[in-house]
């Protein structure tokens, strides 16, 4: 019988592509705790100066120049082989799709940087790159239709996760034989509850993370090796099973 694998990825899976994580020893918010405010929805909606600063931060985000790693490409093979139940990601960089994963397999729980929508009339999604191109003359870009505030389709602090995405993620956690969590501290809820859902449904749990997590004691396997080498090895094992 084919082993069904559900994958959950966090920021650590993209650090090898040059995208810093947030909470690690050299994380963006570890080094600059003040930057977290730029992702608070109330701040974004009500403070124009910080909203403009946030847009400038998005323009400089390394995701625009990053490329998929061996880990991203290996996970795409699970989908090609029909082993993957779903690829759940907390990342907004689109590197799973760029690495060959089918868009239908990828559930972006924290949204995606690649598109932008209007917070007033809901217009969109429009390409974020096109919005960023306006910043030199329009530092606080507005909706062409209603003049409302535009925001990248990223889940900010204070916003709910997309309900449809979260529902799909829960069902994928319930349906798998193995859940593997890669490069995530498993501290941000409700996503951090998904390994527990998988365990309660009888799945085994594999953790690939440089630092300990609250789930280590429940895992069948904990891997501390670098993600770029550990993930391809795990994928080979499941494909051979």
From TrEMBL:
Binding of Zn(2+): at which residues?
118, 121, 143, 146
Query: Which is an annotated Pfam family here?
Result: SIR2
Residues at the catalytic site: 110
Give one GO term, molecular function aspect: metal ion binding
Stretches assigned to the Deacetylase sirtuin-type domain: 1-241
How far does the signal peptide extend, from start to end residue? none
Q: What is its EC number?
A: 2.3.1.286
Alphabetically list the UniProt keywords: Acyltransferase, Metal-binding, NAD, Transferase, Zinc
Which InterPro entries does the annotation name? DHS-like_NAD/FAD-binding_dom, NAD-dep_sirtuin_deacylases, Sirtuin, Sirtuin_cat_small_dom_sf, Ssirtuin_cat_dom
Q: Which PANTHER family match?
A: NAD-DEPENDENT PROTEIN DEACYLASE, NAD-DEPENDENT PROTEIN DEACYLASE SIRTUIN-5, MITOCHONDRIAL-RELATED
- The protein in question is named protein acetyllysine N-acetyltransferase
Q: Which organism is it from?
A: Demequina capsici
């Amino acid at each position: 019988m084919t082993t069904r694998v559900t994958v959950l990825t966090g920021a650590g899976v993209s650090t090898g592509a040059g995208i810093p994580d947030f909470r690690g020893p050299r994380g963006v918010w570890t080094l600059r705790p003040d930057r977290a405010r730029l992702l608070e929805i109330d701040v974004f909606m009500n403070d124009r100066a910080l909203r403009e600063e946030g847009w400038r931060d998005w323009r400089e985000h390394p995701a625009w120049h990053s490329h998929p790693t061996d880990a991203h490409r290996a996970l795409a093979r699970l989908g090609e082989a029909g082993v993957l139940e779903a690829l759940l990601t907390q990342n907004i960089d689109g590197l799973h799709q760029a690495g060959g994963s089918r868009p239908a397999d990828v559930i972006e729980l924290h949204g995606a940087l690649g598109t932008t929508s209007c917070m007033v009339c809901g217009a969109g999604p429009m390409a974020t790159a096109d919005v960023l191109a306006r910043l030199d003359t329009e530092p606080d870009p507005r909706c062409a239709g209603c003049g409302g505030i535009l925001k990248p389709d990223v889940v900010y602090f204070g916003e709910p996760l997309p309900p449809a995405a979260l529902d799909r993620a829960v069902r994928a956690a319930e349906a798998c034989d193995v859940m593997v969590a890669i490069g995530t501290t498993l501290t941000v809820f409700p996503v951090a509850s998904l390994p527990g859902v998988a365990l309660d449904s009888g799945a085994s749990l594999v953790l690939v993370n440089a630092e300990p997590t609250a789930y280590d004691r429940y895992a069948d396997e904990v891997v501390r090796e670098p993600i770029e080498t550990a993930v391809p090895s795990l994928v080979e094992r499941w494909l051979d099973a």
